[in-house]
Amino acid sequence: MAWGLAWALIGGGFGLVPAAQAQQRHIVMASTTSTEQSGLFGHLLPAFKAATGIDVRVVALGTGQALDMARRGDADVVFVHDQAAEEKFVADGFGLKRQAVMYNDFIVVGPKADPAAVKGGDVLGALKKLAGSPAGFISRGDKSGTHAAELRYWKAAGIDLAATKPAGYKECGCGMGPALNMAASLNAHVLADRGTWLSFKNRGELAVLVEGDTRLFNQYGVIVVNPARHPHVKQALAQQFADWVVSPAGQASIAAYKIGGEQLFFPNAGK
Fold this sequence. Notes:
This protein has 11 helices and 12 strands. By secondary structure, the protein is an alpha/beta fold. It folds into 2 domains: about 25-105 and about 220-265, D-Maltodextrin-Binding Protein, domain 2, CATH 3.40.190; about 105-215, D-Maltodextrin-Binding Protein, domain 2 (3-Layer(aba) Sandwich). Strands 1, 2, 3, 4, 5, 6, 7, 8, 9 and 12 form a 10-stranded mixed β-sheet that branches. The protein is globular and about 55 Å long. This is Substrate-binding domain-containing protein.
């Protein structure tokens, strides 16, 4: 009876191994609110799971917070959009390699009536006008990739936010969707990524006012977290995601994601 029980337990143990392993076939990805709120992951990740059997659990944060999460070892891979911060993350030994994945662009959204007369293709000129007017401007204020870009644009426009913020400037400390909601409710301006804007329904009186400036280019990258820093990181599974998203299949899936017939992100792996 003892041997029978022993064999039953051994057999049961062997039987449980595949199930346990299957439960571990998931990774945690720290990413941006723009990729999540635009609906891209709802389209992209099921295709990845169908190809590999790997679940991806997304934690959507601003890029700065996503990189901090990965620095602590709380993510296996990051998918973000602040190239300077991404390159520093790798240079500091927290990531293995940064790979370009896709791009879209930033836009300045504001009241259709354009009371500050900012409409056009010059983001720096638009910010100079906004700085000298009482027109509202909503800043993400959350150390996201979008927030980092916004701060670069203000600085390039010669406006020192640390010294004096424009009269209508408000920081929400929030994601892209909530920032757009706040701008819609206050009929204010906001810097947004085009992907989230296209998926945003509560537009009120808002419209795209500034677009087409080459400075508004918005690149996304993927980085596997370095297991030398955090040995528990699921490097092999995370690398499968990084490899897939820059592969022809992953790039085609990104290109296929559209809202109202309009493409939100443009694959550019290897460029």
